[in-house]
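User: I'm putting together notes for a lab meeting next week and I want to include a structural view of one of the chains we've been expressing. I don't have a solved structure, so I'd like a prediction I can at least talk through. The sequence is below, exactly as it appears in our construct file.
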Amino acid sequence: MNKYLWRRLLMLALIVVMVRNAAWAAPAVTVEKIRTSQTAETVRIVFDVNALPEYSITTLDNPLRLVIDMPGAVNQAASQYVFNDPTVGKLRLGAPEPGKLRAVIDLKTVYMYKVFTLQNPNRLVIDIIKNYEQKLVEEVAPGIKYTSWLRNTASGPVWSHILDVDPKAGYIVKPVLSNGAVQGLEPLTPMAERARAIAAVNGSYFGLDGSIIGLLKIDGEIVSTPELPRTALAIMPDGKLVIDQINYEGNIELPDGRTVPINAVNRERGENELVLYNGLYAPATGTNNFGIEYVVVNGKVAAVNINNSQIPADGAVLSAHGSAARLLACLKVGDAVKVNQTLGPVGDKARHVLGAGPMLVKNNSVFLTTKVEEFGSDVAGGRAPRTAIGLKADGHVLAVVVDGRQDNSIGMTLLELALFMQELGAQDAMNLDGGGSSEMMVKGKIVNKPSDGRERRLGDALAIVASPVAN
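Assistant: Thanks for the context. Below is the predicted structure for the 471-residue chain, given as structure tokens.
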């Protein structure tokens, strides 16, 4: 190898060593100072640096954290900052590995953020945005719009889920029973699937055995009755919806002309009560042997039993105890009995009725009937997950679920829910069951986050289905 080539190789090696030494000697990005500021809308964190850093961002949900990694950076400022703020908890700086600086921001509620750099002087800026809105709108089907709306309020974040349905586009709203019967409970998903629903929400209040607490009428047959007049959704044969207070009255007309009041339909019989059981309850009444029961088919007594009578598909069972049983003691097999039931002018005409309450909006004004309808703190107290149904002036139906009892959504009070339904354009609106029952399904998917962390088993639901005329 000649001298000229050796000389070139030696010079090249020297250049490589000089470049490498220069790289080793180059100063790292240094965080020299950290400044913070807070407003009602934003928490700003500013890293004063000697050079603009490279950085990557990671967001964590559990726990809520914003993580910024800066390779090749070192920190000469304080390693921890604590904030007196409802959204931001604290900032911690550390080195998870040699040659990397990590800033971890602990958050208390959901948030939005911006991270950017500025020059002259060099700064890395982090903005935690507290007052924000995220609204995603999706057309589920022609005439059905789903909106996911996350926004911050003075009290915290609220995440609502809104269905806007145009009945004129070929849809009807109808109640669906769990398992097709009163007895027993079932999650919303199988109920909606069985009804071939495009979307669905939870419906009435219910007991642990599946009994419906309040008024329910399906396909012209009364399924359950309220203890006092409460708000209900009436669905008329032409698909029109009406929200109003509806009450039940019923009696049995005996052969001698006397009448005996019916205390309830399709629920556990109490002391001195007359309860009517029809085919939507269960295969049998499930009653104890302290009363007497009359099986009625085609308006006549077909059998007399002590308890747990089989319920005929084409008839009913009159189950009586105590003073009510004594009033019916004259009945025997073959006697004619007439069952009279009414829900008033609107309820009698309706094909379906689903009761819950209280009323939220009436004639475009907030109209809470909490005290009149005697709702307790389990329904009326504080913020909670909520479900509501509303009617707009243009005939559209609003079904709304608000998540609650979670870091990313604090829920609503009944008044807040009423104001929200009014904001959405409801001229009439009512509250449905809430809490862990609040749930919305759209095209086979649960779109909200039930507060139980999973689907709760329900007594009934409201389904949005294609009108048979439209098929």
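A couple of points you could mention at the meeting. Residues 135-247+346-470 form one domain. The chain has three domains: 29-129, 135-247+346-470, 249-342.

User: Perfect, that's what I needed.
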